[in-house]
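**User:**
My hope is that you can spare some time for a protein that puzzles me. This is the protein in question:
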Amino acid sequence: MRVMRLGALLVLASAVAFGVMPIFGKLAFEAGVGVATLLFVRFAIATPVLWGAVAVRRALPRHRGTVLRALALGAVGYAMQAGLYFLALERMDASVLSLILYSYPALVTGAAILLRRESASRPRLVALVIASGGLVLVLAGAGVGSLDLAGCAFGAGAALTYTTYILVSDGVTKALPPIPLAALVSTGAMVTLGTVAAAAGALDFGFDPMGWVWVGLAGLVSTVAAVVLFFSGMSRVGPSTAAILSTVEPPVTVALVFVTFGEALGAVQLIGALAVISAAVVVNLPTRAPAVT
């Protein structure tokens, strides 16, 4: 019981660490940090710290093929998802974006059903409908005139990219321990984002000194700490419970955004938010095994 309680607290702490990411991002933008610079510096800070954790645990990956696949996941999938997310964050309310992104559990389930990786049970199909309806309410509640269509498109792209990333990474996650996997993914993302930013001439470090604080917190708190806490908690409570506990992340973001920036969801959007989060809980519930007769 004590192990389960500790695991639950670790996963909840991870959800808070992930949930505060949009706050750090918005504050970094206010300090003059550009999207490309924020992305590169975030992973440039996180990567050596994660490799330090790998060295301490003596869990260096050895299978070359698996290492290359993990690097590719970061270089393509995670880099693209992070880029789209922060491009959206630059243009729209963090609370709305958080809920758009959090449609990914339902998207993963729907894609897994279409690919015949999972069964199309009635609760999961209902959850997909609820999630879709909730997302419509979140967006409609903002009012058509106040929505940034490009921001919504970037946010939807981030959710779809993350969905694909999860489906593609299934084999790699089974072949590598969590911390080495996180270090390899972060390395791949850092190389891609740094190369693209340098080639485009988008790296600019002449921002306000406070920008380093917010980008540093994004790298250490919302990347390193969030990942390590999540995997440490999941090892104690199991993936299904960890996924359900992680649904605390959107409410944390919504609450912190309101306190920090005064951005509040309307009544219709709150109903939509509850629908999205409820659907995320349902699709992560373990399926009941068929009775043996």
In short: The radius of gyration is 19 Å.
